[in-house]
Each structure stands twice: as C-alpha cells, then as structure tokens.
Amino acid sequence: MSEVTMPRLSDTMEEGELARWMKNVGDRVEKGDVLAEIETDKATMDLEVFESGVLEKQLVKEGTMVPIGQAVAVIGDGSSTGDEEPEAEEPAPKTEDEPEEDATAEPGAEAASTEPAETEPAEAEQAAGDKPRMSPLARKLARDNDIDLASVTGTGPEGRIIRADIESAIEAKGRDEEGEKPAEAQPAATAEDTEPEVVPLNKIRKMTARRLTESQAVPHFFLTNIVEVDRLIALRGNVNEGLADQGIKVSLNDFIIKAAAIALRLHPEANASWNGDSILRHRRVNVGVAVATDAGLLVPVVTDADRKSLSEIGAEVVELAGRARDGKLSLDQMSGGTFSVSNLGMFGIDEFTAMINPPEASILAVGAASPVPVLRDGELVEVSKLKLTLTVDHRVMDGATAAAFLRDLKDILEQPLRILV
Amino acid sequence: MSEELRVITYRQALNETLRAELEHDENVFLIGEEIGIFEGSYKITAGLLEDFGPKRVVDTPISEEGFVGAAIGAAMLGLRPVVEIMTLNFSLVAIDQIVNHAAKMHAMFGQQVKVPMVIRFPGGGGQQLAATHSQNLEVWYAHIPGLKVLAPSTPAEAKSMLTAAIRDDDPVIFLENLALYNVKGEVPDGEQVAEIGRAAVIKPGSDLTVVSYSRGMVTALKVAEEFEQKGVSVEVVDLRSLRPLDRETICESVRKTSRAVVFEDDMLSYGIGAEVSATIGEGAFDWLDAPVRRVAASEVPLPYAKPLELAAMPDAVDLTRVVQETLDATRFTN
Fold first, then answer.
1. Is the pTM of this model over 0.80?
2. What confidence category does residue A81 fall into, taking pLDDT thresholds of 50, 70 and 90?
3. Are B297 and B216 in contact (CB under 8 A)?
4. Looking at the partner chain, which of A113, A114, A164 has a beta carbon nearest the beta carbon of B331?
5. Which residues of chain B does A164 touch, with a Cβ-Cβ cutoff of 8 Å?
6. Which value does ipTM take for this structure?
C-alpha cells in the first residue's frame, strides 16, 4: 500500500487544488495513468501514478487545496477499498523530508513477539473525519490549555500530534500572551546537564526560518558604498536641537529611511519585486525596518516613506518598534514593504550583508558611522563614514541599475538637505 | 518479630514457607506427585516428609484430576491443602476440577462451603522441555471468577504471597516459574503475609511504565536499569496478582509516565498484556501519548531446539527495542 502525495509541480507552488479526480475508488491504475488533475498557481497539470495497483482511497474531495507532500490518495492491492468518506480537509502536512516508507512501516510487522501493526478501529477512523491524528494526552492537553489543534503540526508517527507538539504550542502561546518576555535566566549547567537545550520554535522563528530559506533561493549580489556622514550627523544635531522643545527627535536611521525612500522614488526599477513570471513595480514606497526583539526579528513597514516628513518617520519607527517588542504588530503593519533597511550600526558593526526579505528586490545593510582619516587638500582630516551594502535580487535588477540607485542614495546622504526639501 | 534480611533462593523461600505454614496450622497439608520421598521434582518440598510425616505430605499416583479433586473435597471439609502439580502443563488434565469445581463451589452452593486451597505449579519455557512442557497458560486461570491467580517474581514475594495464598479462603492458583527457582534475593525473617490483589511499583520512574510479572520482571528490571543509564526514567510495575488485577496501580503509573509497554511470557493474542492494555485504555486514556505496546512470546508451539526456543521467547532485546520505539514515537528527549 502506498500513499500518493501532492507533488511540487512548480517552483513557487506551495499547495495545489485537487481539481478533478480522473480515477474512482476501486479502479485499477497502472504506472503512468493520470490519477487526478491538479490546479497550481500557474496551470492545471496531471497527477500521474507511480505505482500500479488499485485506487483504495481518495483522501480529499475535488476542489480541496492540498499542501505539497500531503497524501491525497492510497493505492494498494484493493483489499481495503471503498469504505472511507473522502475527507473535506486534511490534517497538517507531513514534513517533506520524511521518507515515504515511514508512513507505512510499523513495528509489529517484523516480529511476532511484538504488537501487530497498529490498526485504527473503523469507527475511530470514520469519527475522526477530517481531524488530525493525535494522542489522547495531546488531545487532553490541547483542551486544558485552549490550544487550537488546527494550528499544531504533528511530529509523531504518521503525523500524530503528540504531547511534545502541544507543549511547544503552549509555550509559543505563552510567549505571545506575555508579549514575548525573555525567558528566565537559566541556572548554570551542572555536570549532568551537558545535553544541548532544545528551544522550541515560536511563530516568529518558524516564519523567519521559512522566509529566509526562501530568500536563499533568490539569485542575489551585493554592492557596497562608503558614505561620508559628517554633514548628516551635523544636520541631525541641528534638527534635534532646534526641535527639542517640540519633542521631536530623529535618528540617523530615520534619515537613511527617508533618503532611501527618495532614491526609490527616483528609481522605480528598484522599487520592485519578483512576481514569478513578471516584475512588479510598486507605486508606493514602503520601507521595512528590521527590529530585533526577544522573540525574533520583525520587519514593520513605514508606508509611503517618501511622502512622510522626517519627524513623521521618526515617530512612526519608534511606535512600530515598540509594538514589535510588545508583540503587538498587526499583519498590516508588517506587510506591503517594497524595500527594507537593516541597521547594525548600534552594535558597532562596520559592514555586513543582509538577506533579502522576499518578495522585495533589495535590502540595505547599514553599518556604524566611524571617524576615518582622509587626505583632503593635502591635509589629513577626520571624516565620519559609514558603509552601505545593498543586497539585490538579480532577477529584478542588474548590477548597473542597482549601482545607479545606490549612487543616488549616497549622494542624498552626503547632501542631506535634499532629505529635508 | 525479627526483620533481618537473608539472601536465599526463590526455591528455598517456597520450601521455608511451606514448612512454616505446616507448623502454623495443623489443617495445612501438602499433596502431589513425588513431593514426599522424592522431595518434589524441583525440590520445593525437600525435608518436609521427614519432619511432618505422610499425613501432612501426601504422595499421590500420577493422576492430577484425582488428587486435585481429593484436595477440593478436603478443603470443603475444612482442611487447607497445598497441591503441587509438577508443571502448569499437567494442570490441563485437572482443569475440569479446577474450573468447574474449585472455582464454582462457593457460588453455586449458596456460599455454604469455602474451598481454601492452593494449587502450585511452575510454568514457563527456556529449559528445552519442548512445546507441551513449556507453556504459559496463566491467563486461562486468570480468566475464571472464583479463582485467585498469584505470580510472585522474587524470593520475598514468593514467601509473603504463598503465606497469603495458604491463609486465603478461596482457591488460589500459585504460579511459579522454572527460571526463577534459583534466583536469589533478600527475604525478611518472620511472618510475612502479602495483600492479595496488589501490584507493586518495584522501580519508580517518570518517563515510561513497563508492566510485567513473574519471570518477566527479571528482564524488565534489567532493561529499566539500562535505560536509566541512558537517562530514561523507567517505572517497573510488578503485577504480582493476575486475578484480581490491581488496575489502579497500573493506571496511576501510566498517568504519570504517559507511555506503557507490557512485557509478558504468554502469547500476545488474548494475553495478560491485552488485559493490561485495555485497563490502561479505560483508566488512563487521556494520559497516553503513544499506543500501549506489548512484548510477548511468538505465537508458535515453543521449539525444542535451543536457538529457536530463545528466538521465540520474548527477551531483553525485544523489550529494549519496543521501549525505544515508544520513546521515539513521542519524541522523548531528556
């Protein structure tokens, strides 16, 4: 008996709709036969059979969206055909790296001295309907702690939700509710306590891992530029001094956000993103700002940054960063970015490369401003410089395009009055 | 009363207990094949004929149905017979007496009679005695209301449980095991009377429960200690009494550990493990994080050839594997 799973039919496909079954339960199927039609984000494609046999179960109804890797049908010798209702919705998908054999291998098969293969009573299977498998303990823990099982991925045998999964969910929920408070300081490791501590992933960590893994697939290149920032620093000093009585305080990073927004307005080809088979040039300039929180990296977005004043941007960044640290950002406040700025200057980092936040086409990594000796008119003078490194999606922009954008950004920062007018 | 501990064998504990009970109650007598002059096939009754005489230690013809029936009659009239059947396998020719008479009398005759008797026999394989002499049929008797079935695993339990069995007013099947007779253990001096129907947590633990009894306990404890070295805290429950079954102790343990494996010498199908597993399903369902697994004998007539006999019997390797699989199924980390 083998399961037929939702295949990856295109690069960008994450799930597919089982559009039409081409074989009925009980039908004999041969290798190469078309079992069903799958509608992906791009096209309708055939799901072919890789193993001959009898179609024993259709696990999903027509029209159901199915994540890649999740079983949609069972092909066997025909011995267990037909008594199952198709399930309207399926449990959490199996992890893709799980070998197929795992799904069917059962301990009892190998020796008479142990339990025979685990068999679900027919009643349980029907009653289970569209519910995921879970251990009784997991079910009780989820109920007692008000955990939504739909949000939990089972990591036990055959995707069973087990205690460990619910405990992770409880922990993640606790962090969400406590505004991502930092964990209590751990006592010093004892002699026996040498095993690594297992830190379950919270939602942010999971999302970060997924997005950045996607980001790795982006063909990208880096451009670095050194910017003189003496004037910028002086201007910021003037602004903050002059407007202190109005409670206005702006940071160097706010200037950079605004400068980037102005440069993006000048370079619409840089204010763009990859769209699979086209490039989207965005009409609004929305700049994401990377914020480190105890729970993980968040990128709230300053929308229409090119149209906002420096003080508006400054106030908005303070507000968004505060919400990020309190775990109170809305989805809206984290989406729609067309460009991002990541600044590690406060940690004294001279320069670094940032990873693209898909589907955005570029991200600016800002290092620390530091004094550098420069020979000017025959005299050695001290000049503050910082390094900007742009990571660029090569599918969206070529080197020359991106270089032009970065050059203009440098010019704006070096003549910072352009930021104000 | 002295509480000193002596290290003696399971065999010696049984012998001393029979002697003590013969002394304690003049109504107690022993009856069976070759238990007198020959001192028992496994020397459990050594020295007793000499000291207590032929009225208290009765040699019988090879007629299990006859001497079990005789013992039932004697018990109904107030004596306390302790019957030795040479092995569990031979109890099959007396099973009508045991199941239809000893177990039923008290209920069928309006509780006018009691049948205070003990039927002792060793069971189990591993001695190259071939299929008909190596069986674990304890579940046959554990199935029958009216009987009590005890299965001690240590010399100390052999002493306290045999004393309790002899003093109990119901017919008690007392299951010994050939492989346990030479096992040594600490036994307290003085009178020790076990409470019938109580299981015991022999080794406390928090991560997984292994339930076993009789010979299986030796393997269960060995495997538990090995897991302990690896940082897995295994609790070992000794059933001690197969009927009545101490369901609460089993469930209480599983409610703590959430994982359970039964290690049994009998067959998997309809075996002790099936009953324990169902008990856990009924009493600790919401605490289970993985299916209850059973490790039992292969379902074949036990072979005579040594390698095949060993392969067919459940052992430490089987138990270790199934415990590990159960831990893995719950992504156990320590």
1. no
2. low
3. no
4. A164
5. 330-331
6. 0.80
